[in-house]
Specification:
By secondary structure, the protein is α/β, with parallel strands linked by helices. 41% of the residues lie in helices and 13% in strands. The chain has one domain: Alpha-Beta Barrel (TIM Barrel). The chain contains 15 helices and 11 strands. The strands form 2 sheets. It has an 8-stranded parallel β-barrel with strand order 1-2-3-4-7-8-9-11, surrounded by 7 helices. Strands 5-6 form a two-stranded antiparallel ribbon. Helix 7 (226-235) links the parallel strand 7 (218-221) and strand 8. Helix 1 packs across helix 3, helix 10 (300-311) packs across helix 12 (350-360) and helix 13 crosses helix 14. The structure holds flavin mononucleotide (FMN). Residues 53-55, 101, 132-135, 151, 222-225, 228, 240-242, 275, 332-335 line the site of flavin mononucleotide. This is LLM class flavin-dependent oxidoreductase. Pfam families: Bac_luciferase (PF00296).
Length: 432
């Protein structure tokens, strides 16, 4: 089983009530020590990696203004840049993988290839990039686009972006650097220009950074459309999803692993990690209390602000006490389809859907003793629903402590999870 941690370098995670949770350290998300505690706890729990989701704008869709999302502290109210944080965390950890989200729509391959090559060097081979194409208007408004690129154009650009970035990471042979006593810095014959000229990018290369320990960062992706899943099957080593139940997990798992072959890859080359928010108690009743305490803080209008941002639609224009109607969204289509299905199954109003979204987007919650939670995780993996999990916290910086001190040892006793890291590089953790 593989374990990752889901983080946002700001006030929320999947849970948009995170910053209001009484156990969360007030404003801690602006301090390095907060992230240090989280990373060291996860490393003590032998997690494969931690990663930061990211977005490049505050929410601007709800009420067509930034004011609501800022006032209530929705999921986009604050996001520090994850890469400098990962650089700092590389210095205080030794094994855990370090992942950051960067957008292919609003970055250039050359600068992005440098950022991740740098992180991979400084961390001794632990860098990961969560590739996103960016869906919302707020981001377009911050980067000079009238509107977001059309869906398939975003993925065409992303495909070419990945080709260019990989060419840059390969532009130095691992043997190129000499640092020879005779004054020879590198073997220039082993460093090649890439001379890429495509529809979206023109890049001469080579990179100005020697080959890094992993050669390239581990690629993570979370697309859910047809095109997005093909992109994932072609490029990703880790795929991250949110699915609320076992049948949906199994469907996603089978579909994505099936696509791998189309791109000459083996199903085991892609690890599918599914999001879950655990509540670990001394008893089941205690765990339920913890879950209720967290969920009681979830405010429907905060959830609808985040939903508006994710779906690129102004949900303030719809009645709160009616079911979600036939709204057309241009944002995260897969997640919206899921929300509509769940709303229909449970007969939810828009306000209920907002509350659910605020609790944790649509991340399933599991409450129980350490043994109960371990049972649930093992069951999903045994039934072909996932290769592991993305653990989502309800509060921070101590929100992983009970999982690491209770569930991880339980999984280790059962032989379901590593007791020690075998290697120092993230790709080695994922292969083990
Ligand atoms: C679980 C999950 C996590 C995601 N994290 C991010 C993120 O951090 N930043 C972002 O811009 N998009 C994020 N996305 C959006 C996806 O990367 C992708 O852009 C979106 O699903 C739309 O692609 P699609 O049309 O292929 O579904 C996430 C999506 C899912 C389902």
């Amino acid at each position: 089983m593989h374990l990752a941690a889901f983080l946002i370098a700001g006030n929320a995670a999947h849970s948009q009530a995170l910053w209001r949770h009484p156990e969360s350290r007030r404003g801690g998300f602006l301090e390095l020590d907060y992230y240090r505690h989280i990373a060291q706890t996860l490393e003590r729990g032998k997690f494969d990696l931690l990663f930061f989701a990211d977005r490049l704008a505050v929410s601007t869709r709800y009420g067509e203004s930034h004011r609501h999302g800022i006032a209530v502290g929705d999921q986009d109210a604050t996001r520090l840049d994850p890469l400098p944080i990962l650089g700092a965390l590389a210095a205080v950890t030794r094994h855990i993988g370090l992942g950051a989200t960067r957008s292919t729509t609003y970055s250039q391959p050359y600068s992005l290839a440098r950022e991740f090559a740098t992180l991979d060097h400084l961390s001794g081979g632990r860098a990961a990039w969560n590739v996103v194409t960016s869906v919302n208007q707020g981001e377009a408004d911050n980067f000079g686009l009238k509107e977001t690129l059309p869906h398939d154009v975003r993925y065409d650009r992303a495909d070419e972006f990945l080709e260019v970035a990989h060419k840059l990471w390969r532009s130095w042979s691992p043997q190129a650097l000499h640092l020879g006593a005779g004054g020879r810095y590198a073997d220039a014959a082993l460093v090649e220009a890439i001379d890429h000229h495509g529809a979206h990018f023109s890049v001469r290369g080579p990179l100005n950074i020697p080959s890094s320990p992993q050669g390239s960062p581990v690629i993570i992706q979370a697309g859910s459309s047809e095109r997005g899943q093909d992109f994932a099957a072609r490029w990703s080593e880790v795929v991250f999803n949110i699915q609320p139940d076992l049948p949906r997990l199994q469907r996603f798992y089978g579909d994505l692993k099936g696509r791998a072959e189309k791109f000459g890859r083996r199903p085991q080359d892609i690890k599918i990690l599914s999001a879950v928010m655990p509540f670990v108690g001394a008893s089941r009743a205690h765990a339920e209390e913890l879950r209720e305490q967290a969920n009681a803080l979830a405010d429907p209008l905060v959830g609808l602000s985040t939903l508006s941002s994710h779906m690129n639609v102004d949900f303030s224009a719809y009645a709160l006490d009616a079911p979600i109607g036939d709204v057309q969204v241009s944002g995260i289509q897969g997640l919206f389809k899921l929300l509509k299905e769940i709303s229909a199954e449970r007969q939810l109003t828009l306000a209920d859907a907002g509350r659910l979204y605020a609790q944790g987007v649509l991340t399933p919650q599991v409450a129980g003793t350490a043994a109960d939670v371990a049972d649930w995780l093992e069951h999903i993996v045994a039934q072909g629903g996932a290769d592991g999990f993305v653990i989502s916290p309800s509060h921070l910086p101590h929100g992983f402590d009970d999982f690491v001190d209770g569930v991880v040892p339980e999984l280790q006793r059962r032989g379901s999870f590593r007791r020690n890291y075998d290697g120092r590089q993230l790709r080695a953790h994922l292969a083990a």
